[in-house]
Amino acid sequence: MDTTQLIKELEFKAIRSSGAGGQHVNKTSSKIELTFDLENSESLSDKEKELLKTKLSSKLTKENLLILFCEETRSQHKNKEIAIKKLITVLKKNLIIPKKRKATKPTKASIKKGIEKNKRTSLKKALRKKPRLD
Q1: Which of 3, 14, 58, 121 has the fewest CB atoms lying closer than 10 Å?
Q2: Rounded Cα gap, residues 49 and 57, in angstroms
Q3: Taking the model in full, what pTM does it have?
């Protein structure tokens, strides 16, 4: 994944932030909408694209666009930087391939411990029964 190429492919759109803020919020567009086209990206390999499509399937649109919003600060430039950092962390996090689990046998000691535990509980429950009068 080439981050410098990736940043060039991003599309930004400035929108007015929602919520309270007085007169300033009604005049300025400080909220940032970041759009990343996963399908047509040249900074990702085909393997990485397929992996991201499967892992981010709930966050992608029908056209395989990843859209992130940022309205944390009142500055459009800072929101832009935050949105880029968010995107890069999301991509890096989802490009990690988990290790395959190796099946292992239980140890002899754990098998022995389990058998002893079962014997203790069966003895405990046997002592709770009423004695037979044969």
Answers
A1: 58
A2: 11
A3: 0.67
**What tokens does 134 get?**
């044969």
Asked whether residue 18 carries a pLDDT value surpassing 70, the answer given is: yes
Q: Which residues pair with 65 in a beta bridge?
A: 37
**Token code pair at residue 15:** 């929108």
Distance in angstroms (rounded) separating the CA atoms of residues 80 and 4: 15
Query: Architecture of 3-94 per CATH?
Result: 2-Layer Sandwich (3.30)
- CA–CA gap between residue 129 and residue 47 (Å, rounded): 64
| Structural domain boundaries in the chain | 3-94
Q: What is the pLDDT of residues 90-134, one digit of tens each?
A: 989 988 888 999 999 999 999 999 999 999 999 999 999 988 887
